[in-house]
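Give me structure tokens for this 133-residue protein.
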Amino acid sequence: MKAGTWGTFKQQRMSNTKQSEVRNQVPVAELQTEVDQWINAVGVRYFEPLTNMAMLSEEVGEVARIMARRYGEQSEKESDKAKDLGEELADVLFVVLCLANQTGTDLQGAWERRMVAKTARDAQRHKDNPKLG
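Here you go.
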């Protein structure tokens, strides 16, 4: 894939839609395509799956650090106050999408199946939970 393909893909996707609308409507399958195009245009190639798994753990750790300090009982260090939770969560999503791509996982299909299963399983469970009332 030639350099610039990712940018072209992104421009085409956004050409007829406002950026904020796109962000709320992008299916997981398109995110997987966007990541794949970025990897091929900018990232050269995917890291090995085990490397990406380690990177996922690292990114989740960064999210945990923000959560523990900003929303938990730990005090937040001055150097951590500028960290953006959304960006860290996006880093987690990026690596998850990389793992899905390199293992041939249809994350869109998996997501849809899991939502059906969770909805069936939890249809009354949370409504009947007195802890949530």
